[in-house]
Amino acid sequence: MRWHSIFSDVDGTLINTRFMVTERTRQALLDAMERGLRFYIVSARSPSGIVPIIRENGFGCGMIAHSGALAMDENGAVLYDRAMDRRQAGEVLDALHEMKKAFPGDPYTLSFFSYDTWIAEDRSDPRIVEEEGYVKTCAVEGGLEKLPADAPVHKIMCLCEPEYLDRLEEMVKERFPKLNVVRAWENLLEIKAEGVTKAEAMLSLIRRWGLPEDGTIAFGDHHNDIEMLRAAGCGVAMGNAREAVKQAADLVTEDNDHDGIAAALEKLLG
User: Fold this and answer.
1) Inter-residue contact 160 to 107 (CB < 8 Å)
2) I need a labelling partner for 85 at 20 to 30 A (CA). Which of 23, 194, 202, 234 fits?
3) Distances (CA, A) of 147 to 1, 12, 200, 214
4) How many whole angstroms from its chain centre is CA 218?
5) Interatomic CA distance for residues 253 and 243, integer angstroms
6) Per-residue pLDDT tens for 35-65?
């Protein structure tokens, strides 16, 4: 097989449980790029949450951010952009406020993204504070009024207490059946525009480049990676992946603490 592109999720995949790219994985990706393969980092994170990983590891690569809503090349040029408009985002946020009444206490906190702007309704919420530290970027406190009138919303994020996530996901999908609603982590529900997935963003880039879709290798570990793994020429699930992700993959590699990406690339690229 003539492989031409590599797409990798970040959390639980590219970075290990110490939140770093191991040297073996880093070198395997740099070697692949030296051989002419394209490399794109794919994440639920915003661009500012991905850039430090690119810089710290010398990748000089492109990215797919907001779980597929935005793709940019290595120079920051936007290649793909699919988002909710302000009216639709407002309807979703209003509905999420109403849904809170169905849960006890403070079940979730809301925030949203427009390109690289992250706006949190309550930046002091411990769940937002923890997320800021994790992705190494800062939110701005406020609501939609913080955005220009014509600014799109690429993603609405609900940081939710895990015991309420199943019910919240079901409620949002019932209310907004055309939107893409997916859990990106055990406490995180993402709401995006219709048709927005990591897979669709990946395929849009492949078509843009005029390359065959079956020449792609994709890595992932969580539910929001399943469609991307299925769409790739070779979908690789990490050893630490959820069982449903492994079932969707063509190959299961080592976990993210044991150089799973490097092990798979060494096998596939020779």
Assistant:
1) yes
2) 202
3) 46, 32, 26, 40
4) 13
5) 13
6) 999 999 999 999 999 999 999 999 999 999 9
Name the amino acid, one letter, at 204: S
> What does the CA dihedral 7, 177, 47, 22 come to, rounded to 10 degrees?
-40
Class of domain 86-192 (CATH, top level): alpha beta
Please write the tens of the pLDDT for every residue from 168-197: 999 999 999 999 998 877 889 999 999 999
Residues 102 and 166 sit within 8 Å (Cβ to Cβ): no
112 in helix, strand or coil?
strand
> Which tens digit of pLDDT belongs to each residue from 210-225?
999 999 999 999 988 9
DSSP-derived pairing of the beta strands 140-141 and 117-120: parallel
CA distance 132 to 43: 15
- Average pLDDT of 205-209? 96
Domain boundaries, the chain: 5-80+197-269, 86-192
Radius of gyration of the chain (CA): 18
**Residues 151, 48: Cα–Cα separation, whole Å:** 18
Tokens of 246: 């492994």
Backbone CA torsion sign across 125, 130, 131, 135: positive
Q: Which of 127-141, 149-163, 200-214 has the lowest mean pLDDT?
A: 127-141
Q: Rounded to an integer, what distance in angstroms lies between the CA atom of residue 110 and that of residue 120? A: 6
So what's the pLDDT on residue 182?
Answer: 87
Read off the pLDDT band of 261 (50, 70, 90): very high
CATH code at 5-80+197-269 = 3.40.50.1000
What is the signed CA dihedral for 43, 44, 45, 47, rounded to 10 degrees? 60
DSSP β-ladder status, 117-120 and 78-81 = unpaired
CA distance 48 to 267: 32
Q: Which two tokens stand for residue 30?
A: 């740099």
